[in-house]
Automatic annotation (TrEMBL):
GO CC terms: mitochondrial intermembrane space
Species for this entry: Vireo altiloquus (Black-whiskered vireo)
Protein name: MIA40 protein
Main location: mitochondrion
Pfam families, alphabetized: CHCH
Length: 136
């Protein structure tokens, strides 16, 4: 007896003890050498972001994956003079999400505090420059 329900993007399946006693009929599929995402870098040949790239360290699929994708996409496609200066809100949302999961996304130690403050100052300056540019 399998009971299945969908919550958000996840499917939860409950199985009985008898279900686990039956041998699995699952077959392993060999890696496809023609997989277009295999062995590609961060950016695919068509210019899209390869969210499956191991270089992202799973950031695109973690609990803050959607916020990460939004911020990274904004930065990648930004055409502002200061690249990414139009992405402050997305990066702020990503940071706020990550702060909810300190075990998964450890904060910088004291040695990295200066670089974090520098980044925050740059974001504030970029935001101010954007507002100034919009008001003229």
């Amino acid at each position: 007896l399998f009971v299945s329900s969908v919550i958000g993007k996840d499917r939860i399946i409950f199985a009985t003890k008898e279900d686990h006693e039956t041998p699995s009929s699952a077959e392993l599929v060999a890696d496809d050498p023609d997989d277009p995402y295999e062995e590609q870098g961060l950016i695919l040949p068509n210019g899209d972001i390869n969210w499956n790239c191991p270089c992202l360290g799973g950031m695109a699929s973690g609990p803050c994956g959607e916020q990460f994708k939004s911020a990274f996409s904004c930065f990648h496609y930004s055409t502002e003079e200061i690249k990414g200066s139009d992405c402050v809100d997305q990066f702020r949302a990503m940071q706020e999400c990550m702060q909810k999961y300190p075990d998964l996304y450890p904060q910088e130690d004291e040695n990295d505090e200066k670089s974090s403050k520098d980044l925050e100052a740059a974001s504030t300056e970029a935001s101010a420059a954007k507002e100034e540019k919009g008001s003229s």
